[in-house]
Amino acid sequence: xxxxxxxLRVALATTHVPLAExxxxxxxxxxxxxxxxxxxxxxREFAIAAPRIGVVGLNPHAGExxxxxxxxxxxxxxxxxxxxxxxxxxxxxxPDSAFRELAAGRYDAVVAMYHDQGxxxxxxxxFDEAVNVTLGLPIVRTxxxxxxxxxxxxRVSRARSRWSARSRSRSR
Length: 172
Hints:
Layout: E1 2-4, E2 9-12, H1 22-25, H2 28-44, E3 52-56, H3 71-76, E4 88-93, H4 95-103, E5 109-112, H5 115-125, E6 131-133, E7 142-144, H6 150-170
């Protein structure tokens, strides 16, 4: 899952996982796979020949040397090696400032560790223009960044029906 807008591109290492389970769901292999899929998409779909990818830490201050958690050093940091040809990797980045750096152009994209860590900045900055891109497919697949909006689906469906009925009556 990557969210791409005019200003931000954010891929998620985990998707819809309860916050209490994120640390258990993160593995070095999962983070590495997300980084590799993102690097491939940036090169192939976004024509960025030498992608710059930031990888956000899980804990405040990216764990602060183990004081605030070990996942950043034990799980995330090892996912940054070996190097990916043509790609610059940075991390684990301090989560509370990484998205500002992304918006300023320091990175072409970042990998966030969980849903809201990545989606809050995207929806704040690119809400009306971002799309959800499914990484790793042989085709480009996108959907709205805000989901399917089941809460308004019936209202939209009724509006479309009224519009369609008016269009048919005008064409007669």
